[in-house]
Specification:
The protein has 247 residues and is of the alpha/beta class. Helices cover 33% and strands 32% of the residues. It has a five-stranded parallel beta sheet, with helices on both faces. It has a five-stranded antiparallel beta sheet with strand order 10-9-8-12-11.
Length: 247
């Protein structure tokens, strides 16, 4: 049985989420509810939940600011949010879960199922710490991303990524130091997640870090030589976009 707390300033949202948990997630028991971050901090300290359903947008203290006030994260977090593009990207970067308001039953069941699996792992603290680091240092060039690989979660600085290579439903990360990581998401998933100001799709198989380019060789589409010595094709249809991106 998983003990849960709901932290959301909207009473209707709390009621709706509680009822959906009762009806569709019998493995979860709601042991408390709060309508603000300050009360949430107190309740977490007293009741030691397994899951915290946390609203991102709350007055006075939003969900991320609330997490800053905590020193331990021995619980899983499922964020509840209206569509906030930046908040969602920060959450995805950290391999944490979120639900969009109004919460759909199937999405809720899937998120709870993932939490059940994650409770058996030890990466919770790192994921929350990564979220706060990236969110609070929004303008930092050296953000880190959590990559789900065959061996678990790996935490990589985006500046260390030279390029990404499509491999069916997987993606191979080529990292500084001649390291490679096979991630369990598609190249398109990472293209949507990584900052477009830094990562350029030059081919259906390649997404490159423009800081990782050593040289461009002219041609119909041309070629780029990356810092690790690898030469990659630039697709003809991507050439104009690529040239604009590198100035």
């Amino acid at each position: 049985m998983l003990k849960a707390i709901i932290i959301d300033d909207e009473k209707n949202s709390r009621n709706a989420l509680r009822q959906k948990l009762v009806n569709h997630c019998p493995e979860v028991t709601v042991i408390g509810e709060c309508d603000n971050g300050e009360e949430g901090i107190k309740m977490i300290g007293i009741s030691h939940p397994d899951i915290v359903f946390l609203d991102v947008e709350m007055p006075r203290m939003n969900g991320f600011t609330m997490l800053q006030q905590l020193t331990h994260y021995d619980f899983e977090i499922i964020f509840i949010t209206a569509y906030d593009q930046y908040a969602i990207k920060a959450i995805k970067f950290s391999a944490l879960d979120y639900l969009l308001k109004p919460v759909e039953v199937e999405d809720l069941k899937f998120a709870v199922e993932k939490v059940t699996k994650k409770r058996k792992q030890v990466e919770g603290n790192k994921r929350v710490e990564l979220l706060l680091q990236n969110f609070l240092e929004e303008k930092s060039a050296n953000k880190r991303i959590a990559i789900a690989s065959m061996d678990g979660l790996l935490f990589i600085a985006t500046d260390d990524i030279i390029y990404l290579e499509a491999n069916g439903n997987y993606t191979i990360f080529h990292i500084a130091g001649n390291r490679k990581i096979t991630a369990t998401k598609t190249l398109k998933d990472f293209e949507e997640l990584l900052p477009a100001s830094l990562f350029i799709r030059i081919h259906h198989s390649y997404l490159i870090n423009k800081h990782g380019i050593e040289k461009y060789i002219k041609g119909e589409g041309g070629h780029v030589v990356m810092k690790n010595g690898v030469t990659l094709d630039v697709a003809r249809r991507k050439k104009e976009e690529f040239m604009k991106a590198i100035g």
